[in-house]
């Protein structure tokens, strides 16, 4: 599929004998030569949209299809990362270690990545994930709190894992502060730092400025920069293209956009867009389109979508995974989900504070009750 | 210990040590803070302690243990590593140790739950700030119904989490979840900590979730007993942490399959600091220093065979303005 023209730069110059290993490493199925790496997070960020109910069969199907399509990094964990299975974030149907083990079993060339949030997961969780075959540690903190991850980067490196830092809710601070936090992660052992638009709130130049600031800060040390986008304001793919053009070389996506809020940048759209632009991702477009259409689409209960609540999240800068929690609280307490999300934005709650949604729902319910009383003439 | 009073040393002159010093001076008549020890001669905390008349040194525990008159009780607000090294030396010198680090050399202690069993212990551990805020509530629930699983979420303002906490955040989660089990009485515990940088800083906010039997999730006699126990515990903690309160009524959710057939209670707790030295939003620091001072006071009273002399905030009236948050802090 796509542009089959062979350009001069595509023809490798061979000046020595090439080993079988090298041939295999550069085969299309292994990603081949590429300009950027797409990490697929269907089985991690998508866990939010699935209310953490992934089955082992679904995980095997998705990993096998992504692996065949040449995707080189696949993230598998509870939506809130290792140890996320809880009252606060929702319990997993299947133990995530079993899911990681199944993913590792299915992958022939792709690396299996895990997410962890210090304060929720510990080094012990990371070691367990590593023991069942995870080889990329993605360590996430709120964008201004990178120093809580120092011990975890150290341990991940000691385990021989590839390390990626994740600066969540990157819209909520300035490019300078973001760059300083990226520096902290790189000094602690991160090989790549992501600008993470958890709320889908970054609009074009906002993303560009942040990527540029982080590239300037950590690029000279050889550290890579990545971008993780959400679709709440429909900017995920456009921001990803801008991120690449400003120096990011790792980009996150999810099949069918399966992710929190209005979903992630769809992996299949990223693959098509980058291919059209002549930017090599190592992904076979036909295979990734069928992975989305035939493997993921059939099991999704509800496609992530830009509706009143998720657009409010992008607009108010609210962590995307709060969406379904807000909807549940809305139902339980009889108040609108988008009003809850608007308040979350006003109060400045950060990733992980899902328990505050109940506080806000109670507060809104009380206001509503008082309003009703006032309306009926009671003072 | 003589003349009905005990002398105390505070090891670690950071925010916690300083706040603790103020609490002991103001609230206890039977503990006299005499020494403040650190390792940095330029420490503000040492200078402040000196101005208040304590004997101070930047030469650490070596200096303290070389004094002719040793303290009766030492409060340690350094690091887990430091306390692990110092604990045997305090024990050898016969000094009672109240440990505010996560070292957990001695038993975990939460004053309203298990102090009475540990009055004679030579060394007690104050768990973590999140533990002091949540373990009482887990215990309030588990004293009425079996709790197969309890989960706590502590949200604290970024400004109140110092470099020590940040560098060892796993110690917080592990120590707190252990105490939710060992002291709170849950079969299995889990702890989560979140740092929030929003300005103005948020008050410390803790959530306790407990899995409870299905019948306790429905309105009725059992649920009423649970509510009574939770409210009684709130009042007990308020005796030494006046800013401790439920932010809303406990919320009960009926049993679900996803919860292994258990029901759930959600208890939202806010801790407003009482500002002996630290600002209001640092309720996380206030609760652990208040608990430590309270424990020290009660253990000393027990050893002296006298009544506790603890003064609550109501007895003290308004206190002078608090400072803004200094550099060093910890939860």
Automatic annotation (TrEMBL), chain B:
Residues 321-331 have a biased composition (Polar residues). NAD(+) binds at residues 160-168, 284. Residues 7-121 form the Semialdehyde dehydrogenase NAD-binding domain. One of its GO terms (molecular function) is acetaldehyde dehydrogenase (acetylating) activity. It is an enzyme of class 1 (oxidoreductase). Pfam families: AcetDehyd-dimer. Keywords: Aromatic hydrocarbons catabolism, NAD, Oxidoreductase. SMART domains: Semialdhyde_dh. It catalyses: acetaldehyde + NAD(+) + CoA = acetyl-CoA + NADH + H(+). The active site is at 129 (acyl-thioester intermediate). Its EC number is 1.2.1.10. It comes from the Bacteria. Residues 312-331 are annotated as: Disordered. Belongs to the acetaldehyde dehydrogenase family. This is Acetaldehyde dehydrogenase. It comes from Nocardioides baculatus. The lineage of its organism: Bacteria, Bacillati, Actinomycetota, Actinomycetes, Propionibacteriales.
């Amino acid at each position: 599929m796509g542009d089959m023209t062979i350009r001069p730069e595509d023809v490798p110059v061979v000046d020595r004998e090439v080993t079988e290993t090298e041939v295999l490493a550069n085969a299309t199925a292994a990603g081949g030569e590429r300009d950027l790496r797409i990490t697929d997070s269907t089985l991690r960020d998508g866990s939010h949209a699935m209310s953490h109910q992934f089955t082992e069969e679904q995980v095997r199907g998705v990993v096998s299809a992504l692996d065949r399509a040449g995707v080189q990094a696949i993230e598998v964990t509870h939506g809130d990362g290792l140890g996320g299975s809880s009252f606060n974030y929702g319990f997993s149907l299947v133990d995530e270690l079993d899911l990681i083990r199944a993913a590792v079993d299915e992958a022939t060339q792709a690396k299996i990545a895990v997410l962890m949030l210090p304060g929720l997961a510990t080094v012990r969780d990371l070691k367990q994930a590593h023991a069942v075959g995870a080889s990329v540690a993605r360590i996430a903190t709120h964008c201004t709190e990178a120093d809580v991850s120092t011990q975890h980067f150290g341990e991940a490196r000691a385990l021989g894992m590839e390390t990626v830092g994740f600066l969540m809710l990157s819209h909520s601070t300035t490019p300078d502060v973001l760059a300083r936090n990226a520096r902290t992660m790189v000094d602690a052992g991160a090989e790549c730092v992501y600008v993470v638009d958890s709320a889908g709130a970054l609009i074009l130049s906002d993303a560009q400025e942040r990527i540029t600031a982080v590239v300037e800060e950590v690029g000279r040390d050889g550290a890579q920069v990545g971008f993780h986008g959400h679709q709440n304001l429909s900017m995920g793919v456009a921001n990803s293209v801008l991120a690449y053009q400003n120096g990011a070389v790792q980009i996150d996506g999810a099949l069918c956009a399966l992710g929190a809020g209005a979903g992630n940048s769809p992996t299949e759209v990223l693959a098509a867009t980058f291919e059209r632009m002549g930017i090599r991702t190592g992904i076979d477009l036909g295979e990734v389109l069928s992975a989305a259409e035939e493997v993921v689409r059939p099991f999704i209960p509800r496609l992530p979508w830009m509706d009143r609540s998720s657009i409010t999240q992008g607009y108010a800068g609210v962590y995307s995974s709060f969406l379904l929690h807000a909807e549940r609280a809305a139902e339980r307490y009889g108040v609108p989900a988008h009003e809850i999300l608007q308040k979350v934005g006003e109060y400045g709650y950060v990733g992980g504070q899902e328990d505050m949604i109940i506080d806000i729902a109670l507060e809104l319910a009380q206001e509503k009750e008082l309003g009703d009383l006032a309306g009926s003439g009671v003072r | 210990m003589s003349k009905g009073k005990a002398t105390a040393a505070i090891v670690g002159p950071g925010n916690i040590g300083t706040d603790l010093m103020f609490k002991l001076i103001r609230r206890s008549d039977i503990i006299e803070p005499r020494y403040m020890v650190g390792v940095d001669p330029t420490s503000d905390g040492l200078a402040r302690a000196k101005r208040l008349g304590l004997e101070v040194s930047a030469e650490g525990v070596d200096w303290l243990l070389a004094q002719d008159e040793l303290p009766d009780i030492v409060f340690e607000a350094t690091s887990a590593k430091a306390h692990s090294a110092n604990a045997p030396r305090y024990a050898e010198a016969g000094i009672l140790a109240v440990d505010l680090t996560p070292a957990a050399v001695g038993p975990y202690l939460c004053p309203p739950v298990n102090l009475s069993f540990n009055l004679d212990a030579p060394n007690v551990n104050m768990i973590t700030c999140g533990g002091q805020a949540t373990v009482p509530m887990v215990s309030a629930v588990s004293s009425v119904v079996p709790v197969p699983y309890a989960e706590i979420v502590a949200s604290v303002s970024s400004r109140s989490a110092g470099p020590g906490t940040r560098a060892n955040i796993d110690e917080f989660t592990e120590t707190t979840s252990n105490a939710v089990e060992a002291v709170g009485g849950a079969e299995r515990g889990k702890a989560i900590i979140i740092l929030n940088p929003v300005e103005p800083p948020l008050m410390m906010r803790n959530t306790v979730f407990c899995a409870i039997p299905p019948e306790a999730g429905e309105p009725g006699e059992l649920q009423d007993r649970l509510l009574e126990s939770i409210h009684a515990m709130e009042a007990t903690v308020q005796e030494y942490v006046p800013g401790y309160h439920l932010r809303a009524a406990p919320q009960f959710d009926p049993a679900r399959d996803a919860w292994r057939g258990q029901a759930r209670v959600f208890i939202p707790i806010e801790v407003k600091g009482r500002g002996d030295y630290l600002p209001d939003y640092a309720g996380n620091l206030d609760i652990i220093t208040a608990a430590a001072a309270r424990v020290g006071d009660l253990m000393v009273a027990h050893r002296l065979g006298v009544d506790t002399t603890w003064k609550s905030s109501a007895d003290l009236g308004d206190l002078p303005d608090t400072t803004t948050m200094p550099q060093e802090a910890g939860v």
